[in-house]
Amino acid sequence: MRQSFEDELRLVNQSLSKVRLIVVKNRLYVRGHFPPKPGTTNPVRTSLATGCVAQLSGLKIAGLKAKEIDIALLMGKFEWSTYLKSANPPAPPPVETKTVGDWIEAFEKEYWRRKSDTRKNRTYYHKNYRLPFKKIPQDSALTLEVLIDVACAAKPDSSTRKSLCRKSLYHLAEFAGFSADQLKHLRSYEGTYSMRSINEKVLPSDEEILEVWRRIDLPGWKFIYAILAIYGLRPREALTADYSALTSELPLVEVGDDTKTGRRMVFPCVAEGWEEMLSHLEPQAVEFRGVYNEEPGATVLWYHLKKRPRSPFSPYSLRHCYGRRMFLQGHPSDLIAKSMGHSEAIHRSVYRAWWGQEPYNQRYLETMKRWKERQKSDT
Fold it and tell me: What is the mean predicted confidence (pLDDT) over 88-93?
């Protein structure tokens, strides 16, 4: 089986003692500690150009050059005259070696040159790039090995691992000029996660949701929790949605364009016994519009909707319960999907997988009950 460039590079470096081959801007260099240059007294750590590109063909030649330098250093016979154009040349410019932090800073700058500064884009960048990038050692050189270590720290065959290898780390490596072989090798660690891998979630009952709601003491957060439970919004959406129609005959909530899946109108779905919760759906109860700004917003949401009321489930579980409740109440899947802000295909393949078998059992029993009642009325 033919080995990849990274595997071959690793083998070459394992055979060296004093130096190693590194890749800088798709070129191969010999990196190591060398004797003082002519006219100087201090040893230097530097990189010598091999003139070879970072490909398998170039690696063979670069490997021979690195081995020659390695042997010369081991025997104490390294001569600068072999690698300098004159006996006493000016010091060559150092090879540019950016740190991970430098590359991330450049990546973010380029990202915002191409994207408009909207709430939606800020949230997307924060979730898909800023947070994953924090997992990379900021002061290290940006190498394939470093990125693979970060990817492998995530659970195998998980959505997190796949996102790192396909998006976050991949895009950073692509931006930094990694070779096609290197990018392919990084992708090989993504695993086998797919939407079909989703397992049933343990979702709270309507009674458990109501109990947590009762433990929230601040009116504004009591309102937000009720909105999440009754309308199934994504937690962040609840901070910026339009609630002006809550008191109308058809109390829809409008989610704006500047959100994950764009503008939509959301239908309420109230569980039996939630009359007390309904009494707190007053738009004037919202007191914290300034909360929304990426990371602090997520932290505040988690604190007020889970930690403070000692909730055994996450705020996002309310969204899954909303979808399940809409299904049990007999709403068609296209309406549920539209209200939740995703496609009907995603709704059927992903969200329903999280519910488990029980909602289907209940739906079947209700259908059979109505059928038997019709049979009796017809006789």
Answer: 45
Taking alpha carbons only, the member of 314, 336, 311 closest to residue 326 is 336
| Assessment of whether the complete model's pTM goes beyond 0.85 | no
Last residue of a domain, one of 193, 225, 246: 193
Contact between 12 and 66 under an 8 Å Cβ cutoff? The reply is yes
Residue pair 310/273 in contact (Cβ under 8 Å)? The answer is no
Pair (213, 353) in one structural domain: yes
- pLDDT score recorded for residue 170: 96
- The range of the structural domain enclosing residue 285 comes to 206-365
361 and 331 in a common domain: yes
Q: What is the pLDDT of residues 297-333, one digit of tens each?
A: 556 677 777 777 888 888 888 998 999 999 889 898 8
If one counts the domains in the chain, the total is 3
**Rounded mean pLDDT, 92-101:** 66
Question: Which domain-ending residue is among 193, 223, 245?
Answer: 193
Whether 379 maps to a domain, the answer reads no
* Beta pairing partners, 255: 264
